[in-house]
Amino acid sequence: MAKKNVNEMSFLDHLEELRWHLIKSVSAVTITATIAFLAKGFIFDVLIFGPSKASFITYELLCKASKYLGMESFCFTKLPFEIQSRTMSGQFSAHIWTAITAGFVIAFPYVLYQLWKFISPGLHENERKHSRGFIIISSLLFFIGVLFGYYVICPLSINFLGTYQVSDQVHNDFDLSSYIGLIRSSVLASGLVFELPIIIYFLTKVGLVTPQFLRKYRKYALILVLVISAIITPPDIASQVIVAIPILILYEASIFISRIVIRNQKRREKKHA
Fold first, then answer.
1. Helix/strand number for the chain, H first, E second
2. Cβ distance 209 to 257 under 8 Å?
3. Residue 82 forms beta bridges with which residues?
4. What is the DSSP string of 71-120?
5. Most Cβ neighbours (<10 Å): which of 38, 71, 78, 209?
């Protein structure tokens, strides 16, 4: 049976098409989550609990940098806190949700591919041609964001919150779900924030954003970036600046991308005039 043209598809046909793309995406996440579930030792001992150890590469680099600057604020042999599970199902629940998160991160390119398969029939041929790198670029930005969240935001947050004390009489014993929640939110939030150039690209394509608009509201964007940095990092200036810098670079890159999109649109309009 021949496949229907996208313009001939009814609303129910579109829903059926979307349903199959969602099923394929969920299946991919389930498969990769199962693999992550079975790789419990590596996922937890190496990845999840890595930033809680003084030997973590970020701490070593920060220690060397602080020594070079005449300080030793990031040099320590052990972080002063313990991680505990205070509920009967705490460790099992943590195992399940961590596996699902890892499955989503690993399967992200395939999920994007299914999204692209769903929306691409509604695009013009030249739009599909100029958007072929969507999956590769989006996945690359997402993974860079994930790595930035894991190697920068997580250790900065864990170091600050793990060593912060209101009194010497209070000892830090963090619940497992709280610790993993910090790792998960930092990694996923960073990965999604790094998708900013892709979001700006599509907003420019549909006419909701222009380079002039982005330049005009740059100062407000700076404030928003600082707010986002304050949300996903501990409340110290150094950490917020470290996180804000790449986001500002992404914003400037988004202005450049928006300008290219507008320029290409004007060229096509002149060609068809």
1. 12, 2
2. no
3. 173
4. --TT--SS-S-EEE--STTHHHHHHHHHHHHHHHHHHHHHHHHHHHHHHG
5. 209
Structure confidence by residue, pLDDT tens digits, 153-194 = 888 888 888 888 888 888 888 899 999 998 998 899 889 888
Enter the tokens of residue 209: 């954003």
Which helix (H) or strand (E) segment holds residue 174: the answer is strand 173-175
Q: How far lies 199's CA from each of 143, 204, 206, 246, 251, in Å? A: 16, 9, 11, 16, 11
pTM of the complete model: 0.82
User: What rounded mean pLDDT belongs to the chain?
Assistant: 83
Q: What angle do CA 82, 83, 84 make, to 5 degrees?
A: 115
142 within 8 A of 191, measured Cβ to Cβ = yes
How much of the chain exceeds pLDDT 90, in percent? 29
- Residues 187-227 pLDDT 10s: 998 898 888 888 888 888 777 888 888 888 887 877 777 77
The token pair at 252 is 């400037």
Q: Which residues contact 170 (CB under 8 A, 6 or more apart)?
A: none
Residue 228 CB-density burial (10 A; 0-12 exposed, 13-18 middle, 19+ buried): middle
Q: What is the DSSP letter of 39?
A: T
State whether residue 175 is helix, strand or coil.
strand
